[in-house]
TrEMBL record:
InterPro entries (UniProt xref): Peptidase_S1_PA, Peptidase_S1_PA_chymotrypsin, Peptidase_S1A, Ser/Thr_Proteases_Immune/Dev, Trypsin_dom, TRYPSIN_HIS, TRYPSIN_SER
Record GO terms (molecular function): serine-type endopeptidase activity
GO annotations of cellular component type: extracellular region
Location relative to the cell: Secreted
Keyword Protein biosynthesis among UniProt keywords: no
The protein's name: Peptidase S1 domain-containing protein
């Protein structure tokens, strides 16, 4: 299958377009998980926008599907992720599938107590959009949009997350707690990916805290990034890349909703072991680019 890769320059102004965002805002950011389950595991349906992105690696006569990245549904036809997850991959590697409504990777039908979710919805990438200015050596503009081959059906377990709007666009969330979800390693001393979606709660810290980290000094930092974490034992890690950083906030006319503020971009290989923060893409900064691609 051929996937079209499209480069779109970063814009500074939001374009008017034909997507009816009112219809998306009517349903976005709604969580159906009861929060009785504590600890690191997400409840079934708690983060219904989380996408699981599968990469196909071709090795001689063998195909291997691996899941190393996450994403978020923001529109019936678009999943947002990190550019490094979908672009500049190995020669024999490509984005193959996008799963929505996934919770436990080991079961076909995910259940909790006596209620079960619908089977995951599986999509193929139709087009992949990356900012023309993306540079993997600097890990700047680490954002990508994947256009799905057909629109997702919104259900209790598959819903888009809200994008920042109004006053929240300028909010830098400094010192606030945010939620990061993924199937990556959650115990660095036992680095196997988790089969159940995990959530970690961490504070947003000054970008200087990330600039100080030696292993990250090769990267260039800008307003397009945010620095999050710095709590020993808690971090996003391998397998969480591209996945969502959200915060519940009150949205005009809608009450509290989950808003997508960040995308997991880069951290140190030891993850949460040494209480170092990690770098996330600042979604607010890229809204004009996102609207330009989708519209
Ligand atoms: C957008 O959708 C909303 C809610 O479904 C509807 O009330 C409104 O008329 C639509 N706007 C346009 C321009 O189609
Ligand atoms: C969405 O629902 C339609 C109608 O039931 C169905 O044909 C389609 O396959 C569904 N799409 C996905 C991705 O499950
Ligand atoms: C990315 O940045 C590096 C280091 O500054 C530079 O050498 C390279 O040409 C850049 N690549 C692109 C595609 O701009
Ligand atoms: C993210 O981008 C927005 C919009 O450009 C900006 O107002 C905000 O301060 C940025 N956040 C951080 C942590 O730099």
């Amino acid at each position: 299958m051929k996937i079209f890769l499209i480069f779109v320059s970063i814009l500074t102004e939001i374009a008017n377009g034909k997507t009816n965002w009112t219809r998306i805002n009517d349903v976005c950011g709604v969580s159906h998980g009861d929060r009785i389950i504590g600890g690191t595991k997400a409840a079934l349906g708690q983060y219904p926008w989380v996408a699981h992105i599968g990469l196909l690696k071709q090795e001689r006569n063998d195909h291997k599907l691996s899941y190393e990245c996450g994403g978020s549904l923001i529109h019936p036809k678009f999943v947002i992720s990190a550019a490094h997850c979908v672009y500049g991959l190995g020669n024999n590697e490509r984005v193959a599938t996008i799963k929505l409504g996934e919770h436990n990777l080991e079961t076909d039908i995910d259940c909790e107590g006596n209620h079960c979710a619908d089977p995951p919805q599986v999509f193929y990438p139709e087009r992949i959009y990356v900012p023309r200015e993306y540079n993997d050596t600097k890990l700047k503009h680490d954002i990508a949009l994947i256009e799905l081959d057909e629109p997702a059906n919104f259900t209790r377990y598959v819903l888009p997350v809200c994008l920042p709007s109004g006053d929240m666009i300028k909010n830098d969330l400094m010192s606030m707690m945010v939620e990061i979800t993924g199937w990556g390693y959650f115990d660095i001393d036992d680095p196997v990916s988790s089969s159940i979606l995990n959530v970690v709660r961490l504070p947003v810290v000054e970008i200087e805290k990330c600039k100080e980290i030696k292993q990250l000094s090769v990267y260039e930092f800008s307003k397009g990034q945010m620095c999050v974490g710095g709590i020993k034992g808690k971090d996003s890690c391998n397998g969480d890349s591209g996945g969502p950083l959200v915060k519940a906030m009150s949205m005009d006319n809608y009450g509290p909703r989950y808003i997508l503020f960040g995308l997991v971009s880069v951290g140190v290989p030891s993850c949460g072991k040494f209480s170092l923060p990690a770098v996330y893409t600042n979604v607010s900064h890229y809204l004009p680019w996102i609207y330009d691609v989708i519209n």
